[in-house]
Amino acid sequence: MSHVTIVSTSYPDGHGGSEAAGAFVADFAKELSNITEVSIVAPGRAGTFSNEEGIEVFRFRTRSTPLSLLRPLHPMDWPQLFSVMSAGHHAVLKAVRRTHAAHILALWSLPSGLWARHAANKYRIPYSTWSLGSDIWSLGRIPLFKRLLASVLAGSDCCFADGIALARDVERLSGRECDYLPSCRTLPPRDKSPRSTPPYRLAFLGRWHHNKGVDILLDALFLLSENDWQSIEEIRIAGGGPLDSRVREDCGRLESTGLPVSMRGFADRDAAADILSWADYLLIPSRIESIPVILSDAVQIGTPIISTPVGDIPDVLARHGIGLLSDDTSAASLARAIRTALQTPPTSFHRNLAKAQPCFSITAAARQFANRIHL
Length: 375
Fold this sequence. Notes:
Radius of gyration: 21 Å
CATH superfamily of the largest domain: Glycogen Phosphorylase B
Distance between the termini: 9 Å
Order of helices and strands: EHEEEHEHEHHEHEEHHEHEHEHEHEHHH
Number of helices: 15
């Protein structure tokens, strides 16, 4: 049986936020292990090796700051970036050598793709890349990283992206064909009883980061009228990240006026399923996005969506009829979309959500990847 080494900067390690960020990578690896042998290279608090349900996991040491929050254009972050880049590089070489891998899958294009390319060239095996919007639409705007991205993508055996429009952007950048491969995970089953009348429950789950637009959501909440709030039972904002102080301050101001807003930490798999089964609507106020994992989570549980019109989300919501869009990414527009949702019974999306579920299957994604690389 051939062996695939997955290189990812997101993989659960038991610390806050890692499970939410990397759960779908773990689920994908588990599904792929039903087809072929799989190993993982991922960051951790210490350089360790373990066997988790038959999957070998090679950890390379990182410090307390998550790799996703390090800023390559800020000299203060360079020492940690160099340390992580070196540790990841050596961990990938070690994993490929020990497992005799026949293929490397990099999640995501940078920096995992750089590590994968070097190991693939050294051991004369192919590698593939799976790109996120943050790869192409954020790093891809910086000339140096744009050139690196183009080189890594062009050298890969196969290119994948977790969005349809994103895949086309990868093709334009790399000159290579790119397949859409949805990022999704398996949530524990939950009973859900959609409501047909207000007051409704709304939820946000995700990183408290500029790209994820939690600040847009908070500004929108301040624009809602007293009449709007009468149709809201509660809004739960779960997560954590660099906008922590902003979220705490604004939620505190809203709560101090008696409005039903509550904060929670990062939601692991079970907590995410609980919140989504509780919520009548999921809020996705992102500035940059392709098709986020939380969207597929909501479809699995049967929770309709209120979103900003970014990435592939407008196409997904229009194609499947599973939620409402704001006109743009402004707080005023999002407030209007929330107001419309408060006048729209969540039950009206129930049938469409059920029909959309097969489109977000981790089993189908693993099989698609295996077929594409001819396993």
